[in-house]
């Protein structure tokens, strides 16, 4: 299905249609339909729409896939009327705008349907759901896989593609294609094997690298989509700083720069091996720079599979914060100079290596606050007065913010989960002596769920940012917190 990746630029990249017209889109789609064949075309259409509409139901995706494939099948035959494709796509748009549309729902549909003709089609084609923050796909047991496969192989494949791709839809398209194709091949091979258990064990070991690549690239690209290149660079820098706080800014900053460049190049790339190749090269750089400085990095880098080495590195827990000199804050002149962002980033790097258990999402709040302050104050009439005022406000909030986050996630990182929940319950009993057992259980479960989701370095950014914002809003008594 190598040629399939070009369909990404044909069915759903609307700029080509806008600049080159209807005939261009029809000709290119039909060319791919004929080159790929109906089955591969249908599979890719299912993958692309599951990726694009990650919150849609399986039935909604199935309806859309049937319509797109039917349109191509009808209008891409030799001798088909040149107006067939345009008329068919217009009918699809009209169906999308109908009150009983069977296609994926989207809050932007109504605004698109105000337009007519090509403008309406372009608007509808540009709609997509935000990525799922928490992947929902859970791989069934070998027995369950084979039972579903033998019952209806086609339905099994369709449902797997929908579930898997909508869960890991931020992974680059070539990674998703390779991973899903490999999985379906494994199932079809092992479910007819005379020794399925042995077969699955062997195949799953062989696909471990591909599974990790899918998981890690989905996490990284989700973060890149939400954060953008500069904030991803900051996030990666502070992650490394907390894992190896003895390393200097000069040691780690080039690695963070390199990581952000990898994700910028590969998250939306249709090059078949971009992510694996670039991430492998990046991992080699990390290992070369840090394995001699830290035993844990050396252990991770000793493996023969470089993707597993990268996974090992990103899964490292924060190190114990070393004793470091008193932190010097950047001056107003530094913040409003040409390198203001660099000075702010260096300061937050120093904060992160002194508070190694403060999770990424909390540090992200500091990053956003610093960006806002620099943007607001450095363009103000009296920049120094503005910065001094902000320093005073943030200075009153920051120590408590850092200490609470560091202590909470520090306990989560150091304790097993059951002991952590017991500590939470004991703490809440003291602060809420009147609470009923049911309420205590509910609150403990909520906080434990937050810890398990948002304390790790690879936490889902949008979900955790919303949780932290809610916490800050409840903690701010006068509604003027600088960190919100």
UniProtKB/TrEMBL annotation:
<feature type="signal peptide">
    <location>
        <begin position="1"/>
        <end position="17"/>
    </location>
</feature>
<dbReference type="GO" id="GO:0005737">
    <property type="term" value="C:cytoplasm"/>
</dbReference>
<keyword id="KW-0848">Vitamin D</keyword>
<dbReference type="Pfam" id="PF09164">
    <property type="entry name" value="VitD-bind_III"/>
</dbReference>
<dbReference type="InterPro" id="IPR020858">
    <property type="entry name" value="Serum_albumin-like"/>
</dbReference>
<comment type="function">
    <text>Involved in vitamin D transport and storage, scavenging of extracellular G-actin, enhancement of the chemotactic activity of C5 alpha for neutrophils in inflammation and macrophage activation.</text>
</comment>
<dbReference type="GO" id="GO:0005499">
    <property type="term" value="F:vitamin D binding"/>
</dbReference>
<dbReference type="InterPro" id="IPR000264">
    <property type="entry name" value="ALB/AFP/VDB"/>
</dbReference>
<dbReference type="GO" id="GO:0003779">
    <property type="term" value="F:actin binding"/>
</dbReference>
<keyword id="KW-0964">Secreted</keyword>
<feature type="domain" description="Albumin">
    <location>
        <begin position="17"/>
        <end position="209"/>
    </location>
</feature>
<comment type="subunit">
    <text>Associates with membrane-bound immunoglobulin on the surface of B-lymphocytes and with IgG Fc receptor on the membranes of T-lymphocytes. Interacts with LRP2; the interaction is required for renal uptake of GC in complex with 25-hydroxyvitamin D3.</text>
</comment>
<keyword id="KW-0813">Transport</keyword>
<dbReference type="InterPro" id="IPR000213">
    <property type="entry name" value="VitD-bd"/>
</dbReference>
<keyword id="KW-0732">Signal</keyword>
<dbReference type="GO" id="GO:0090482">
    <property type="term" value="F:vitamin transmembrane transporter activity"/>
</dbReference>
<protein>
    <recommendedName>
        <fullName>Vitamin D-binding protein</fullName>
    </recommendedName>
</protein>
<feature type="domain" description="Albumin">
    <location>
        <begin position="210"/>
        <end position="396"/>
    </location>
</feature>
<dbReference type="GO" id="GO:0072562">
    <property type="term" value="C:blood microparticle"/>
</dbReference>
<dbReference type="Pfam" id="PF00273">
    <property type="entry name" value="Serum_albumin"/>
</dbReference>
<dbReference type="InterPro" id="IPR015247">
    <property type="entry name" value="VitD-bind_III"/>
</dbReference>
<keyword id="KW-0677">Repeat</keyword>
<keyword id="KW-1015">Disulfide bond</keyword>
<dbReference type="InterPro" id="IPR014760">
    <property type="entry name" value="Serum_albumin_N"/>
</dbReference>
<keyword id="KW-0009">Actin-binding</keyword>
């Amino acid at each position: 299905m190598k040629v399939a990746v070009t369909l990404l630029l044909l069915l759903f990249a609307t700029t080509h249609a806008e600049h080159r017209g209807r005939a261009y889109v029809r000709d290119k789609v039909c060319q791919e339909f004929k080159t790929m064949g109906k089955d591969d075309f249908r599979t890719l259409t299912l993958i692309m729409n599951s990726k694009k509409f990650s919150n849609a139901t399986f039935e909604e995706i199935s309806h859309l896939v049937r319509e797109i494939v039917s349109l191509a099948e009808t209008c891409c035959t030799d001798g088909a009327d040149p107006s067939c494709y345009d008329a068919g796509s217009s009918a699809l748009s009209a169906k999308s705008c109908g009150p009983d549309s069977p296609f994926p729902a989207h809050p932007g549909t109504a605004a698109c349907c105000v337009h007519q003709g090509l403008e309406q089609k372009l608007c509808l084609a540009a709609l997509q759901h935000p990525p799922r923050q928490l992947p929902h796909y859970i791989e069934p047991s070998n027995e369950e896989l084979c039972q579903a496969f033998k019952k209806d192989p086609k339905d099994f494949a369709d449902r797997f593609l929908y579930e898997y791709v909508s869960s890991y839809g931020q992974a680059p398209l070539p990674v998703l294609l390779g991973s899903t194709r490999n999985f379906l091949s494994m199932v079809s091979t092992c479910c007819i094997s005379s020794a399925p258990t042995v077969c699955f064990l062997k195949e799953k070991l062989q696909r471990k690298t591909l599974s990790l690549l899918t998981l890690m690239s989905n996490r990284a690209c989700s973060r890149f989509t939400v954060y953008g290149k500069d904030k991803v660079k900051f996030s990666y820098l502070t992650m490394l700083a907390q894992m190896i706080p003895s390393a200097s800014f000069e040691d780690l900053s080039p690695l963070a720069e390199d990581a952000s460049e990898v994700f910028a190049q590969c998250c939306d790339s249709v090059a078949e091996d971009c992510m694996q190749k670039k991430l492998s090269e990046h991992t080699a750089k990390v290992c070369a720079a840090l394995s001699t400085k830290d035993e844990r990095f050396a252990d991770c880098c000793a493996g023969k599979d470089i993707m597993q080495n990268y996974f090992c590195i990103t899964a490292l827990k924060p190190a114990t914060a070393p004793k470091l000199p008193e932190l010097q804050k950047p001056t107003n002149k530094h913040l409003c100079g040409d390198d203001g962002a660099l000075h702010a980033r260096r300061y937050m790097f120093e904060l992160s290596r002194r508070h190694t258990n403060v999770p990424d999402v909390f540090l992200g709040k500091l990053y956003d606050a610093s960006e806002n302050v620099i943007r607001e104050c450095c363009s103000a009439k009296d920049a120094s007065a503005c910065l001094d005022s902000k320093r005073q406000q943030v200075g009153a909030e920051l120590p408590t913010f850092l200490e609470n986050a560091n202590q909470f996630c520090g306990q989560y990182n150091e304790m097993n989960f059951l002991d952590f929940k017991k500590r939470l319950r004991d703490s809440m009993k003291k602060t809420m002596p009147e609470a009923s057992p049911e309420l205590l259980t509910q609150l403990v479960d909520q906080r434990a769920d937050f810890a398990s989701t948002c304390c790790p370095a690879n936490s889902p950014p949008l979900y955790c940012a919303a949780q932290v914002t809610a916490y800050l809003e409840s903690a701010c008594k006068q509604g003027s917190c600088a960190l919100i």
